[in-house]
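Supplementary Methods S3. Input chains for the assembly prediction are listed below.
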Amino acid sequence: MQIGIFTVGDVTPDPTTGRTPTEHERIKATVEIAKKAEEVGLDVFATGEHHNPPFIASAPTTTLAYIGAQTERIVLSTATTLITTDDPVLIAEDYAKLQHLTDGRVDLMMGRGNTGPVYPWFGKDIRQGINLAIENYALLHRLWREDVVDWEGRFRTPLHGFTATPRPLDGVPPFVWHGSIRSPEIAEQAAYYGDGFFHNHIFWPPAHTEQMVRLYRERFEHYGHGPADSAIVGLGGQFFMRRNSQDAINEFRPYFDNAPVYGHGPSLEEFTEGTPLTVGSPQQVLERTLSIRDYVGHYQRQLFLVDHAGLPLKTVLEQLDLLGEILPDLRKGFAEGRPSHVPDAPTHASLVAAAGGAKDSTVYAEADAATGTSDRDLHDPEVAKVLEGEL
Amino acid sequence: MVRSIVVVAAGLSVPSSTRLLADLLGDAVERAVAARGEEVEVEVVELRPLAHALADHLLTGFPTGELAEAIDKVVRADALVVVTPVFAGSYSGLFKTFFDVLDLGALEGKPVLVGATAGTARHSLVLDHALRPLFAYLRALVVPTGVFAASEDFGAGGLDGGLRKRADRAATELVALLGCSGQTTVHAPRRRPVGEEMAEVTPFEQLLREAGGDSVR
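Predicted structure tokens for the full assembly:
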């Protein structure tokens, strides 16, 4: 079971002080939060992607590479990567590069996650969101698995004899999750490929999440990837903890009431009852989180949103300390009653093992016109010496 | 087979003339179904107690508690009677919000009787200029007779001065459409909610094929 955090990188005024952090402060805070996540023992840090204010979540691989250089163990992921408006060729390149730089500590979550005005900035149309997600991912899937791709589609200029570089680390593409709140087509897509399915449970009632996950699980089995209960499921969640639950409620309420997404809508009490948001003591968060299995089954990844709605960095770091304290009990609870055939979330190491070991996937240049040889022509004894480290 | 009729009433006061008209229409439909020798169940959904939940739905994207139940009832009904007060020359915002949050296609092919109330009969064209276009957009089947009631219709002699007759006529038209819905309607291509996909999944090969074709999804 992987437990981690995800951020959308919102730059939101702190409603208790009225102060809005600068972009610079928020970007640096994001790095601090990710490093803290590793320090308290979490498994995953994921960043969203937005291309408009009030967010600092553009250029996600820049952020992740910088964090990767300052961490040792934590898996770097996205929540989500915009498969609709991003060019799949650039996604293929960016995340393969990130794989190499971080020695495979990378996976990513595809999402459409855009509001209407964003699409036209990238030459796209929101009404085609599902079609874009389907076609773009079909191309991305090939770019990571075929050295030379010939491709023609509806939404992107054709590719002929194209090789995305660098090739995936060890010949193994990063694991992919598909995130969707209410689109059954995306659950179907995840099931078809045998990829992971992530439901961002944070705004939605359990009955809906249960249905989306069940659809994915049934179709995962239908496509022959294994029994439904071995499908790879991730969920979003959110909490606010203090040792005393009433302190948690009092402190979090102004942030909840003014939150960019659900603020000025339902009350904190209604929202905590209707969605997985838990505001209370560490014990309450522990119990609520473990109860989610009752309706989605055993799952592989739980991500929490902790740094949003203007919460100050200091508070966020305290939340991570508290999460770190209940982490051993969370892990123990998640392991309880878990059948042995339910897999963990794939990692680079497990994918390499499943592929029968690492292999260099470098695509060497073709022979040049002047000499008729390639610098990597293995039949050339001089080249062979170079490759074997003799020269 | 029990015919399920749901009456949606958007009145705000208690008692409201909108609710009076809603009940009058509900009774008329009940009699008309019974006259065909069929069983009928009429339920009223009042929107006033759902006002907060509707505002929350606009912000969070999902219905809670009683609103979820009300939406479910409306979507499953064999036919609807919908009644709104006239506000600023049109249906009320509360009335519209309820229909705004339904899933796309939720009322496709559903027989609907439209009704409205106002202080004066000068507003009566609201049925044809506001409610009909709304339900045409939702691809519901609106019966030819709409029923408008002004304050005077509830006054001395009003009910028998034509309102009851109009209600019976509209009810008869609505009941004539029972059983015609669904099967006879050609469903427009649309995206389906997860519940419908659970029942009959669109296979990925088809999604992929259509993504590359001329579909809008």
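The first strand of chain B starts at residue 2 and ends at 9. Chain B touches chain A at residues 55-56, 58-62, 64-65, 191-195, 197-198, 201-204, 207-208, 210-213, 215-217 (CB under 8 Å).
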